Amino acid sequence: MAIVDFLAAFLIFILTQKLIQTLFRRTYRRKLPPGPKGWPVIGALPYLGTMPHTSLAYMAKKYGPVMYLKVGTNDMVVVSTPDAARAFLKTLDINFSNRPPNAGATHLAYGAQDMVFAHYGPKWKLLRKLSNLHMRGGKALEDWSNVRISELGHMLETMYESSKKGEAVVVAEMLTYAMANMIGQVILSRRVFVTKGSDSNEFKDMVVELMTSAGLFNIGDFIPSIAWMDLQGIEGGMKRLHKKFDVLLTKLLEEHKESSSKRKGKPDLLDYVLANRDNSEGERLTTTNIKALLLNLFSAGTDTSSSIIEWALSEMLRNPSILKRAQHEMVQVIGRNRRLVESDISRLPYLQAICKETFRKHPSTPLNLPRIATEACEVNGYYIPKGTRLSVNIWAIGRDPDVWENPLEFNPDRFLSGKNAKIDPRGNDFELIPFGAGRRICAGTRMGILLVEYILGTLVHSFDWNLPSSVTKLNMDESFGLALQKVVPLAALVTPRLPINAYSP
């Protein structure tokens, strides 16, 4: 009987959905953006596939730069060109400043108590203000430049030892280890991983799992009435992962509290957050808010930048002439007697062009984190209902042949002259928005650009790079998530190019 009851309920649900869709078409007499006709109940979900950014880019070629989809019970609009992105993220920014509810916010981000998923309001502003003032802002970045120098030295030392042994370097693991320690020193006044090993590898796996699962299109987010079934097993995985992170974050907080006497006169980010957890508007950050903020900083701060650097090195290994040209520029500016320092970057236009080209072709976030319309609005003559989810296909914008000549080619020269020479990835030029734009632009934009330029430049200047003899063709396949990972992590052989004293902390 239970099965019969379930089937009857499911049939009623389908008929109700069809009725709602019919009423929806009659109610919205205004013109909706064009888009594919979906299936009953599930709408356009089957069209998204395992690589939604590529599926949506393909559909946009047929339906246009502003595309409407019915996904489950939700309205969704996808934009795929710079002009369309500008209309939503600049002109209508305030109307699209909130995030829709989803499983990632609930199960990973402590019920949206973090900075990434939180409602746009006083608490979100307080979290963002504190992280910018004491970690990601211009002065803060200057204040902890010595941390970056030291951790990069540890990484170079490890790579130098690998080169002597003839061992390949696994780029993603190496970068995650170094960046987690950089962030750990700024937030907690300590290296999170003293030695590279199983703990740091497990942390890397946890971060990748978080960024992957949070980016998946979860059926329960779009058909809330069946969310309890967890048909894809996504929510169960999120809950298990959250427990792992919570154990780690709780331990870090407790150890930080116990070591407070050692930091007198030298406060770190967590000290500042704890000291300023109240604001003038009566908002107070709870321990949950603080753990959620730490989760944001450690996960996004390590994975997005490391993935960009890995993609850049992969492209240069496929195009050795680009690698050689970058090294030649550095020899001319820096010489071969010392490491690159951050003040060198402004005199390395080709390095900066390589970074921009990687942001364009391999954006760390292929689809921006979704936003939701607070009120109904109109864009390009199309009606956008209240509650519509907005997704900006950053990956598609970077590969738009109407914007970029030969977009599938990795060509840093496109940023050295002509119309693209002044394009900047900080959110004002909508042809290149790897960090998003508007009020909800990634809070770590400035830090992310600096880390990519500094670390990538150091790796290129310090070593020659080659693939192992067993690799005849470099795999460039993508793995979809909040951050765009390589399916096969890059492993390469390195040969030192500088004096031995350059490879030390």
From TrEMBL:
Names of the cofactor(s): heme
Pathway, per record: Pigment biosynthesis; anthocyanin biosynthesis
Residues annotated to bind heme: 442
Record carries keyword DNA-binding: no
EC number: 1.14.14.81
Keyword Mitochondrion among record annotations: no
Pfam family membership, one: p450
Top-level taxon of origin: Eukaryota
One GO molecular-function entry: heme binding
Stored SUPFAM superfamilies: Cytochrome P450
Reactions catalysed according to its record: a 3',5'-unsubstituted flavanone + 2 reduced [NADPH--hemoprotein reductase] + 2 O2 = a 3',5'-dihydroxyflavanone + 2 oxidized [NADPH--hemoprotein reductase] + 2 H2O + 2 H(+)
The entry's keywords: Heme, Iron, Metal-binding, Monooxygenase, NADP, Oxidoreductase
PANTHER family xref list: CYTOCHROME P450 98A9, FLAVONOID 3'-MONOOXYGENASE
Summary of the function given for this chain in its UniProt record: Catalyzes the 3'5'-hydroxylation of naringenin and eriodictyol to form 5,7,3,'4',5'-pentahydroxyflavanone and 3',5'-hydroxylation of dihydrokaempferol and dihydroquercetin to form dihydromyricetin.
Similarity comment text for this entry: Belongs to the cytochrome P450 family.
Protein name: Flavonoid 3',5'-hydroxylase
Organism: Vinca major (greater periwinkle)
The encoding gene: VFH
